[in-house]
């Protein structure tokens, strides 16, 4: 890849990542209307395992050693397992799609705190100001959204999502950065398929309605999210500081809220629009080199 291609990738990858990642909340709303959340996730991950196996068979990447396999499995359970499981359970318990992005959207604050101590990354006062600005934007976007449904379990699931995606991205950066993404992802998806299958058999009736809506959303989530957006996330983790990557998650609630407004009629008022602007400003502040 020459310098111009690298520059173009560096500019477009964050934008594409935010757009794709935000559709995950929308797609999940469609699939959980037709299937139990852990059951749907087990099916989704099994599809992804098949796709990644084909990619690995064609590319023939270097396989990690036993330690690398163990690290990949842990990263997969964190990034895919508890994060996706928490998000799906929250939406399945009537938390609106836009609102379900709120708590995971607080990831930059938690990431910056941990990265400062665990990865040795220096977080400047200006970056801290950007994190606070982004937090304010997230609150403004989702300030007046309904808190209906089985809120207790839904919010607990969202908190689990926040913690797991934060620890997962940091774990991936520290222990899996040197593992080829094709072999590493395949290990991760095999691990998380087993994780979700066990959860589905233990806690669910494994109901699935194979409607057109379910199958289309499932296909999108398996290909565009589990392969496309995760690939972009891991590329960003390799090429940027953890705090800079985490700041992109401030944009996800804003983009999700806009999509939810267009698709489901969820409220998007002037204060929420202003919050979207604050989130964009926060990403600029955190990533700018002063």
Automatic annotation (TrEMBL):
TM spans (from-to): 12-32, 38-59, 71-95, 126-145, 151-171, 183-203, 215-237, 244-264, 270-287
Subcellular location: Membrane
Keyword Membrane: yes
Lineage: superkingdom: Bacteria
Membrane topology: Multi-pass membrane protein
Family: Belongs to the EamA transporter family.
Protein name: Drug/metabolite transporter (DMT)-like permease
Species, as recorded: Bradyrhizobium ottawaense
């Amino acid at each position: 890849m020459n310098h111009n291609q690298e520059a173009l990738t560096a500019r477009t990858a964050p934008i594409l990542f935010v757009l794709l990642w935000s559709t995950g909340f929308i797609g999940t709303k469609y699939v959980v209307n037709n299937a139990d959340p852990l059951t749907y996730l087990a099916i989704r991950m099994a599809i992804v395992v098949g796709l990644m196996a084909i990619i690995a068979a064609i590319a023939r990447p270097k396989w990690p050693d036993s330690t690398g396999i163990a690290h990949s499995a842990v990263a997969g359970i964190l990034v895919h397992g508890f994060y996706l499981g928490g998000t799906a359970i929250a939406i399945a318990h009537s938390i609106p799609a836009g609102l379900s992005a709120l708590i995971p959207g607080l990831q930059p604050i938690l990431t910056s705190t941990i990265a400062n101590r665990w990865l040795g990354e220096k977080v400047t006062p200006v970056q801290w100001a950007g994190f606070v600005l982004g937090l304010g934007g997230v609150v403004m976007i989702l300030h007046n959204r309904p808190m209906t449904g089985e809120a207790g379990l839904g919010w607990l699931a969202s908190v689990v999502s926040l913690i797991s995606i934060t620890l997962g991205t940091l774990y991936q950066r520290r222990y899996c950065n040197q593992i080829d993404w094709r072999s590493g992802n395949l290990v991760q998806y095999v691990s998380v398929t087993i994780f979700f299958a066990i959860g589905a058999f233990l806690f669910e009736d494994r109901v699935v309605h194979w409607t057109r809506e379910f199958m289309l959303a499932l296909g999108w989530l398996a290909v565009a999210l589990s392969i496309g957006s995760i690939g972009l996330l891991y590329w960003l983790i390799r090429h940027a500081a953890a705090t800079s990557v985490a700041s992109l998650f401030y944009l996800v609630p804003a983009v999700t809220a806009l999509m939810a407004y267009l698709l489901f009629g969820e409220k998007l008022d002037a204060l929420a629009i202003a919050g979207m602007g604050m989130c964009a400003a926060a990403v600029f502040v955190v990533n700018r080199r002063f």
